[in-house]
Design goal:
alpha/beta; Rossmann fold; 2 domains; 11 helices; 9 strands; globular
Length: 267
């Protein structure tokens, strides 16, 4: 699959992989800063942004897309930075292609099965979001405010709605608004998105020591808990964990300067 991407700067490569509902647009500020010393590639994963929509969205699909991207752009070795779902893609890709990894930087996700958290997992939040995205009738939408008004009936958190609204675009042919996210396919694959790339997936690779690994977590987020440090240490015994106080899951947007300092420590 030929992924849409943005490229900035020159120097040793950095590849940035966004999370669920994200796109390369969300990483432009970080990318431009890193481009002072690196060639930075910010991709749109399949079923997101300006990349093609596809009927499948497994972690094997996403790993294979990333492998193809490295080959297309002749990237022999790179610092790989992944956030949330993109962090799991990065871990899965790195496990299969360690020779292509200069350093692995994972933003606010752990290599664990989040479905095991049951009510405390984010599965039901994402299920609700993706259902709401599918229910909206864009033929009745005249502005992004209309989309926000509808989503507000389903999602209380204004920050989440503002993030989702970045995925609303005008279709130039139909002159109707639409999502730049393939909500039906993401909904169908949500179980794997939430549960996949956990310890059992990496079992035959443990311990992973072929490349340096850094986890960056927001201390207001529940995605990497203190109890997860033992799991991370078991899989990646040399891993470093950097904390960002006051940041939630979208730490690169909530605390951009602090996140940038953490990334620069890695790069």
């Amino acid at each position: 699959m030929e992924l849409f991407y943005r490229k900035e700067g020159s120097g040793s490569p950095v590849v940035i992989v966004h999370g669920l509902y994200g796109s390369s647009d969300n990483w432009l500020n970080i990318g431009k800063r890193l481009a002072e010393k690196h060639t930075v590639y910010m991709i749109d994963q399949r079923n997101h942004g300006r990349s093609p929509f596809a009927p499948s969205h497994t972690f094997n699909d996403l790993r294979n897309d990333l492998e193809e991207f490295f080959e297309q752009h002749k990237i022999e070795k790179a610092i790989l930075l992944g956030h949330s779902m993109g962090g799991k893609v990065a871990m899965w890709f790195a496990a299969d292609f360690p020779e292509k990894i200069e350093k692995l930087v994972i933003a606010d996700i752990a290599p664990k099965d989040y479905l095991l958290l049951k009510e405390d997992s984010q599965f039901y939040l994402h299920q609700n979001i993706l259902l709401a995205m599918q229910e909206i009738d864009f033929s009745m939408v005249k502005s992004r405010n209309d989309v926000d008004d509808f989503m507000a009936l389903k999602i209380d958190d204004k920050r989440i709605r503002q993030f989702l609204l970045k995925n609303v675009e005008m279709n130039k042919k139909t002159k109707q608004y639409q999502w730049r996210v393939n909500a039906p396919v993401l909904y169908d694959h949500l179980d794997e998105i939430v549960s996949g790339v956990n310890r059992s997936w990496l079992d035959d690779r443990i311990p992973i020591t072929a490349y340096p690994v850094v986890f960056i977590r927001g201390l207001l987020s529940k995605y990497i808990l203190d109890e997860d440090k033992a799991l991370i240490g078991e899989i990646y015994p040399d891993a470093q964990i950097i904390d960002i106080p006051g940041a939630g899951h979208w730490l690169h947007a909530e605390k951009p300067e602090e996140f940038m300092r953490a990334v620069l420590m890695c790069c």
